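User: Predict the complex.
Assistant: Input components as received:
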Amino acid sequence: MPDAFGAALLIARKDLAIEFRTRTAFFSAVVFALLAIVIFFFAWDPTAVAASDLAPGVLWVIFTFSGLLGLHRSFGVELADRALDGLLGAPVPRHAIYLGKAMANLVFVLAIEVIAVPAVALFYDMPLGGARGVAALAALLILAAIGLVAVGTLFAAMSVNTRLGELLLPMLSLPFFVPIVIPAAQTTARLLAGRPVAESIGWIKILLAFDLVFVAACTMAFPYTIED
Amino acid sequence: MSTPIASHAGRPAARATFDWLFVVAALLVVATFIRAIYFTPVEALQGPAQKIYYVHPPSAWVAFLAFGIVAVASIGYLWMKDLRLDRLAESSAEVGVVFTTITLMTGSLWGKPIWGTWWTWDARLTSTLFLWFIYVGYLILRGAIEEPGMRARYSAVLGILGSLLIPFIHLSVYLFRTLHPMPIIGKPSKPSLPNDMLETFLMAFFSFTVLYAALLRARYRLATDQAALEAEEGR
Amino acid sequence: MTAGVSAPARRAVEAEALVRAFGPRRAVDGVSFAIDAGECLAVFGPNGAGKTTLLRVLAGLLRPTRGRAFVSGVALPGGPEARRRIGFISHASMLYAALTARENVELAARLFGVADPRDAAARALDAMRMTPHADTAVRALSRGMQQRVSIARAMVHGPSVVLLDEPFTGLDASGAAALSNALGVLRASGAALVLVTHNLDEGLSLATHAAIMRGGAFVRYEPRGPIDPRAYAESYRTLVAPDA
């Protein structure tokens, strides 16, 4: 029998293979992100607010919503022909299924960001601050994405089984993204202003704590959402 | 050949309609308000607006108490799989949402004369708003699932995660910005309210807590009756 | 009931007063039976009789509300050890439409910890005569072919208990023959089968034990012995008529 991590990798690889084959969810999430980036620009008066001041806010709003779009698809694939029953019937621990789905979602969300972040930088004239700035932003994105995916994967598993279906996912998830978006946007703004990372350490600690608490809690909670 | 799982003692017809606890709670709240309006001095700086202290903080306290009980009942449910705990969580969440709504509305009413605006993105206000969103979401989730076992499991998961989220929201919103008056009795130094105001204030906390207990009990009984009826229909 | 006497050896599949409720509704309501390795229980019944729920409990996918169920002596829902012994063919294919037949079966083989997943998948697909279509995406296969892949998926790890929910539905003559053949091989190697169907002929041809299910309970249950198919069909009609 594969161990929990091995099983999780198998499941993640399977999800990514399916996504790579069909690509519909990825393309629609990317197009959505690009459209939103462009539309946001027209929501402000460019003479009053500099585009580069808007960039951090736009970045994290886009991050949240395109991330949600990616999570939708995660369990639809499993329920279409009840493939989830196949996973549940396999001799792998339940939390391995969650970790596998979450790892695939993490790759998915980060892949969207790889396109969305340069787009924000381009359209909003965002100074990335050289290699160090890019590295810091990338680390921040990964931290934020872990928290988003931890909670979002669990709620995606729950919402597909309800009468409201995917409508429920944003409603359940968005309050949980507040302690991700606020620290991430604050840190981004400081980084872009050329301030040292040390100034944002408080915010980064909140993000880290969020990731730790919710990865643990959601991993423990997941078995209750799929079996009875 | 099948018998309903709920006992017949829980059937609606079998229960007296007089809810003594609710009557006691109502009398206590009325007494608190009479004392607050007629027998407690008007605060010099804020004027009559300060009377909100006898509604707003006790409501917020009850909301927190209610959501705390949701979390405890949810953990209990996942542990023991007893549907009565699920009904307790459901009832407490509903009562909690009502008191959160009261907290938000009274806060807004007070904010207009004192802060000069109905709404401000103050930390406590914003946290309370998100609290409201989380538990309204909890109630909508419950409404979106038919099967009682699944409904109980899913809402228990959300009830627990919601309680873990509250400190994170509060911390991040607090660091973001705050202009709310600091708590007045939870401080380590002496409470900064004059004695007669403090007594009314504490009386308000007490009577609101009793009111919570009364509403929770009534709502819990309703949930029990609903389950018993569903069991009879399902037979 | 014949299952009442406790056998010294572990029974392959066993249910004791099994109940599964969804809220107040009892889908399975007091089912008891036991079969040994190499035996096959066929469960007949109209739609909504609780047959699928019974299989899902036996597959470890649903927790019994009351009573107990065992697979090779392990109480359900057991852990990974119990699940490893079970092969489950449900009326849904449990396949990923975007992946090929081979990828689907191989994934199952890997998740079940089969020693050589590539080889096992190829053999399972061959047993269902799917080798020519092994590298076609499941989405592009016909219903019947998907059903064959689904069967290969469920058997790739050599289960000792196979649970089948209407497995012949949608199969053509060649598919049905391949399935019968594969089930014969499994039984010869000591696997026990639980087969749910509303087709009496197919069920009785495989069964060593037969049950008629209605309203969540077995209203008739016996070892196959000398069952006269025509008399059994008559009995089935009288027993399930009120529901039909």
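Chain B is about 70% helix and 0% strand.
Let me know if you want any component modeled separately.
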